[in-house]
Design brief:
The chain has 9 helices and 5 strands. It is of the alpha/beta class.
């Protein structure tokens, strides 16, 4: 079988993918990769947000698929996806291949109100609009569009709304059996 990450985390912005991914990788003693960082590198941009702002969402998604197919992504022990990665059909196909190779895909699901509350505590200048609305105002719309897709791609969905970082990490690790 081709190499594949042991654990792949997906979810909307501020759902905890990067934080829990890094913690899980540390606990499992595996390498961690944030796909947004690799995508920015592939697109020769300082960050994923800059890539979206300067190149547009379509070019960013194409770069994201390229990054997802790179050896760096496939050899990561724990991989956190970009917030929209699973919405791209080519990314979905690559994720399905990774599942067949043994990857466990976990959807960190948070309600829009929780995501908005978390987002206001971040640097919004790093989060470009995806719909023309402000990043905070678009959360509900993006959640409605992506939630069914994320549920269909994931092996497991964890509702993280009421979980502490520690209990969310324990729930993620428990998905590995």
């Amino acid at each position: 079988m081709p190499p594949a990450p042991r654990l792949i985390l997906l979810g909307l912005r501020t759902s905890g993918k990067t934080t829990l991914g890094a913690l899980a990788a540390n606990k499992l003693n595996l390498p961690f990769l944030d796909l947004d960082s690799l995508t920015a590198k592939v697109l020769d941009q300082p960050s994923a947000g800059d890539a979206i702002r300067h190149l547009g969402l379509k070019a960013f998604r194409a770069g994201e698929v390229r990054a997802l197919r790179m050896p760096e992504a496939k050899s990561a022990g724990v991989l956190s996806l970009g917030g929209g990665t699973p919405t791209d059909p080519d990314a979905q196909a690559t994720l399905a291949e990774m599942q067949k190779s043994g990857s466990r895909i976990v959807y960190l699901r948070a309600a829009p109100a929780i995501l908005r509350a978390r987002m206001v505590k971040t640097d919004l200048s790093t989060r470009p609009s995806l719909t023309g609305k402000s990043p905070i105002d678009e959360v509900e719309q993006i959640f409605r569009e992506r939630d069914p897709v994320f549920r269909s791609v994931a092996d497991v969905t964890i509702d993280v709304d009421a979980l502490t970082e520690e209990t969310a990490l324990a729930a993620v690790l428990a998905t590995l059996g």
